[in-house]
């Protein structure tokens, strides 16, 4: 990956707990404490946030702060699009994972004719919609929006008209159609899902490489197979949500920690394996929350370690 540009998106309004807005700063502190000048020699852009809206009254329990999340995703989309059109590679560092919709939309806006493959390294499927979400937190919805999947067959909420209007805007960011095909989406490490998501995963036949499968079959074998599945894609997008890591082994410094996840070394191998294809046009790291860290700044240190290692393999 050459001509890298960091996009710093300190937004956490799509999450259920506060603190992910400090994740980027925590990673920068981790770099300083490691005597690593990573953040000093790579150009960056700061994306304006709506974090002040956490004090506003929530008008939609099925999609909290959706108006501002839509605006935030549009900002991320614009930043990613501009970076790509300038022949730079965006490395998106985000607070909560709703930003992934912005990143994917920005790629499609810059490369509308390219077939996009999505590598989703996460403990969660993020396939809920305002019609199915049990929490109303939009960081659990970016893939549903990107795929235009309302999943009303599993509906348990009645979103109001305003929510539906902004949900449709979210789905149409960057392009007015799905950003990629379900067959071009591959999960790694997803292990904490709701019934509505399970139904959608089965219906769309989305491949999920679970942690036990990766360890039983071998990480190199799974990466090779995943690349073969995505080989007809022109470009790849990788998103690394740190809750894909084992919270008991690493730390609980993320909004929705889940046990039995990947080790940091496995995350490094996964990301590096896909970077070697030379098809990756955007890499995202999200959901570091230092306020929840039970081991000092461990999650930020780990996330930065993964990022620094993988980029050094390709720059």
Automatic annotation (TrEMBL):
Its cofactor is Mn(2+). One of its GO terms (biological process) is arginine metabolic process. The keyword Hydrolase applies. It comes from Seonamhaeicola maritimus. One of its GO terms (cellular component) is cytosol. InterPro entries: Arginase, Ureohydrolase, Ureohydrolase_dom_sf. This is Arginase. PROSITE patterns: ARGINASE_2. Pathway: Nitrogen metabolism; urea cycle; L-ornithine and urea from L-arginine: step 1/1. Signal peptide: none annotated. One of its GO terms (molecular function) is manganese ion binding. Belongs to the arginase family. Its EC number is 3.5.3.1. It is an enzyme of class 3 (hydrolase). It holds the Pfam family Arginase. It comes from the Bacteria. CDD domains: Arginase (cd09989). Keywords: Arginine metabolism, Hydrolase, Manganese, Metal-binding.
